């Protein structure tokens, strides 16, 4: 029996590089479309969407329907055509229907799809977990738990007799890593996890078996497939103990973790992180130098330039580094909200915090690129350890789960850049995270604009403040792992209206209701 334990990669935390505006409802939704396409096995001709919870209220503002359609059409998360996917689908005569249910017992990030092609139909239920991560929970009558992080061959069979399974394994050969059998109503789903997907001739050999109803190759959605599902550590305490007992730096321990998890070499890991860093710098430059047309039109898209100009003219009262970091954070948010290419860090809603903080701190400290890569590695593992206990999704836990976590990651990165100890790194995380406990996700109208973009600013300021505190030797009275426990506690206690539904906080104001009405009318007119 295969284990589908959720063992995260650091690139699930710093990544994906994607088209905005939401890593959860756009990036994750696109990946849901991609895996649905593979399971259907043909070009879709008809698709019905069922959106629940917060997604039912915000799917248009987050371009969720466009993202799923893009995935169904074969577009990846960073494909600039995502914003045009509905038009592309219409030209291909793909019929689409949308159904919504805000009040539901289902996970608020649930997307149910009912797909048809010329030869097949399938119903799948999925969850966009947060930060671009997904969970496929059912395929027709089969209850599954697939994260899309392995290559696998799905075979629907009439019975699970050992001789039938043995015959399929014999055809696949040594390629099979593990096998999982899932019982349905009158059929079985055999899942063969493989090193690589078999070729057409092998697939045809399996399809010809009398007991086989259907064969579907499903390719991993990631370039860092899951190789080991036993994480080296899941707590801050375990991570610090490992570093100390092995006499290794945090970046070295983190590289060891990712190498074991994904099978990547040290060089490959550092190269991927360097690519992420280049993408972060590009999004800052895009925000400060080019015109960004926000999809919701609730803001001008010029606030970053406005602040940057004031810095250049020396009109501001606080120091240049903080103001510059704020301008850069807003720039990233404006690129994201205009469906530009950004890095989810750890989510698209918190897109500006880490790039702005790390770039600005690196300039102040005259850091070399290798130091920046190490800082990003440290930031990623902080986010990863938090994610094992607490979801990184505004729909699941408010903006404390996005900007709050990003601020904690950024604070840790600053301390690493400044030469702080592993203990100081984790104290910075603790101080930053608890400062933003209770931060709600009270989106206005639906788009990732108000208050999302400006809310990144508090994450930036908080990160700088607590990094200095940690470097000075100030500690959190509550240990780091218990601070993460407290975050999860608040996520659970927070009411649904304050979790990305547009129903509470700023989203419930008179102005917000007017803007939402205007936004929905605009969508209706454009459609």
Give a quick summary of the entry.
The chain has 527 residues and is α+β, with helices and mostly antiparallel strands.
Q: What does this protein look like?
A:
α10 crosses α14, α13 runs parallel beside α16 (403-417) and α17 (422-435) packs across α18 (452-471). The chain contains 20 helices and 12 strands. Helix content is 49%, strand content 15%.
Summarize the helices and strands and which ones pair or pack.
Layout: H1 10-13, E1 17-19, H2 23-40, E2 46-52, H3 53-58, H4 64-72, H5 85-91, E3 95-101, E4 110-116, E5 121-130, E6 133-139, E7 142-146, E8 152-157, H6 162-172, E9 176-183, E10 188-194, H7 200-207, E11 212-218, H8 236-245, H9 250-262, H10 266-289, H11 303-312, H12 320-337, E12 341-343, H13 353-365, H14 369-389, H15 394-397, H16 403-417, H17 422-435, H18 452-471, H19 480-493, H20 510-526
Parallel strand pairs: 2-3
Antiparallel strand pairs: 1-12, 2-4, 4-5, 5-6, 6-7, 8-10, 8-11, 9-10
Strand content: 5-15%
Estimated helix fraction: 40-55%
Spatial strand sequence of the major β-sheet:
3-2-4-5-6-7
Poorly predicted runs = none
What coarse outline follows from CA principal-axis ratios?
globular
Secondary-structure-derived class: alpha+beta
Intertermini distance = 48 Å
Structural Rg? 23 Å
Number of DSSP helical runs: 20
Features of the shown structure:
single chain, 49% helix, globular, alpha+beta, 12 strands, 527 residues, six-stranded mixed beta sheet
């Amino acid at each position: 029996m295969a284990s589908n334990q959720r063992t995260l990669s650091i690139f699930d935390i710093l990544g994906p590089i994607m088209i905005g505006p939401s890593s959860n409802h756009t990036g994750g939704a696109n990946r849901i479309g991609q895996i649905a396409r593979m399971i259907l096995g043909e070009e879709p001709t008809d698709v019905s969407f069922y959106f629940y919870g917060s997604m039912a209220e915000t799917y248009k503002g987050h371009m969720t329907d466009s993202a799923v359609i893009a995935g169904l059409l074969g577009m990846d998360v960073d494909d600039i055509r995502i914003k045009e996917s509905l038009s592309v689908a219409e030209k291909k005569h793909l019929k689409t229907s949308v159904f919504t249910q805000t009040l539901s017992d289902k996970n608020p990030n649930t997307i149910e799809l009912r797909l048809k092609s010329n030869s097949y139909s399938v119903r799948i239920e999925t969850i966009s977990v947060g930060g671009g991560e997904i969970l496929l929970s059912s395929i027709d009558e089969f209850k599954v738990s697939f994260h899309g992080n392995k290559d696998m061959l799905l075979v629907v069979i009439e019975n699970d007799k050992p001789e039938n399974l043995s015959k399929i394994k014999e055809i696949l050969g040594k390629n099979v890593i593990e096998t999982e059998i899932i019982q349905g109503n009158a059929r079985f789903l055999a899942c063969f996890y493989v090193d690589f997907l078999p070729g057409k001739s092998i697939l045809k050999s399996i399809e010809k078996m009398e007991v086989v109803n259907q064969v579907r190759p499903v390719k991993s959605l990631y370039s860092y497939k899951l190789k080991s599902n036993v994480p080296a550590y899941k707590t801050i305490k375990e991570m610090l103990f490992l570093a100390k007992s092995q006499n290794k730096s945090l970046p070295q321990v983190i590289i060891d973790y990712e190498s074991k998890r994904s099978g990547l070499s040290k060089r490959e890991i550092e190269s991927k992180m360097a690519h992420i860093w280049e993408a972060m710098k590009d999004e800052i430059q895009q925000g400060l130098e080019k015109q960004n047309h926000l999809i919701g039109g609730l803001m001008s898209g010029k606030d970053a330039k406005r602040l940057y100009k004031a810095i250049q003219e020396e009109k501001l009262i606080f120091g240049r580094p903080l103001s510059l970091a704020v301008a850069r954070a807003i720039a990233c948010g404006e690129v994201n909200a205009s469906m530009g290419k950004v890095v989810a860090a750890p989510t698209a809603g918190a897109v500006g915090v880490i790039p702005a903080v790390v770039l600005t701190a690196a300039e102040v400290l005259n850091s070399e690129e290798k130091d920046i890569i190490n800082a990003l590695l440290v930031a990623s593992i902080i986010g990863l350890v938090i994610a094992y206990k607490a979801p990184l999704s505004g729909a699941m836990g408010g903006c404390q789960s996005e900007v709050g976590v990003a601020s904690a990651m950024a604070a840790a990165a600053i301390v690493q850049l400044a030469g702080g100890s592993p203990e100081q790194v984790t104290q910075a995380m603790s101080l930053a995270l608890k400062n933003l406990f209770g931060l709600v996700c009270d989106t206005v109208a639906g788009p990732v604009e108000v208050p999302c973009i400006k809310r990144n600013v508090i994450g930036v300021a908080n990160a700088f403040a607590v990094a200095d505190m940690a470097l000075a030797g100030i500690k959190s009275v509550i240990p780091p792992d218990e601070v993460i426990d407290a975050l999860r506690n608040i996520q659970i206690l927070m009411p649904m209206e304050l979790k990305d539904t547009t129903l509470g906080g700023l989203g419930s104001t008179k102005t917000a209701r007017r803007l939402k009405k205007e936004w929905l009318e605009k969508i209706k007119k454009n459609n």
